[in-house]
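Hey Z.,

So I finally got round to the zinc ion thing we talked about over coffee. Here's the setup:
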Amino acid sequence: MGKNNRIENLFSAGTLSLGGNHTPLGYLIDEQSDTLRMAGIVSDLLLSFETMFTKLSRDHQAQRIAAPAVIDTTVLERAEYFSSFPDTAMPLGDRWHLNPAMCYHVYQRYEHTTLSGNVCIYVAGQSFRNERSYAYLRRMGNFTMAEIVSLGDSRQVESFRTSLLLEVARLAEKLGLRGSLDRARDPFFVSAANRGKIVRQKLSPLKFELNIRVGKRERLAVASFNNHQEFFGSRFHIVDPDDLPVHSACVAFGIERWIYAYLYHHGLNRKNWPKIAI
Ligand code: AMP
Ligand code: ZN
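And the result:
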């Protein structure tokens, strides 16, 4: 059996018991496929990827926000989250939802402010989503998301996104992860005027994804590159000195998916791994 088959089996629910604290390979994980307690090489990779994305954000002079696992429900309401993604976010009591993504903390942080220039923010943490089905590391109810967010002038925001598209593609290539950059199907966070048009096109130029090959036909979206135009600027009253809503873009990484893709391509034996920048 090749290494790729092994990793496939390992993380396909039902094909291998992952219970107990000590698996021979030392990556132990809980029995459920929607939440994971990681150890050994899996937790080492989690740290490596977090470090890598932190470094990438610093190349863009990002400031870091340390965010909690919850976000005020009213923030998601102002972001029209519930109409864009019905049933995805998980409520916690009356006041909060568990983070469905990290970048909402950035819009909340800058709400009702005037920006004199562009800002770049790095925010990483635990995200939670209801999904229709779950798969180890690939589709979970609770996962780790790192985001780099740019706010400001439309041209600079789009050039931030384009530049990150290339940098992240290069990074994946360096790590030996093969895949493609594709326009995504989700038409999201666009002004009402554009929404109908984009839904009809089924393809939004505002969202690209990096899809890594993890099987003969299977691809995994490990990162998304989203240009929200003035959507959040206007929803959260984040304006430029002329009082016009700023543009925003976020680049989001699903860290467990990077781990999965990395293990798929390089196997479980650390000795066979390409050097990963830590
Ligand atoms: P999105 O906000 O949907 O573009 O998600 C950002 C990134 O988070 C995606 O590109 C994935 O890498 C990752 N991601 C999204 N949903 C999940 C999930 N249920 N489990 C693990 N990773 C996810
Ligand atoms: Zn985001």
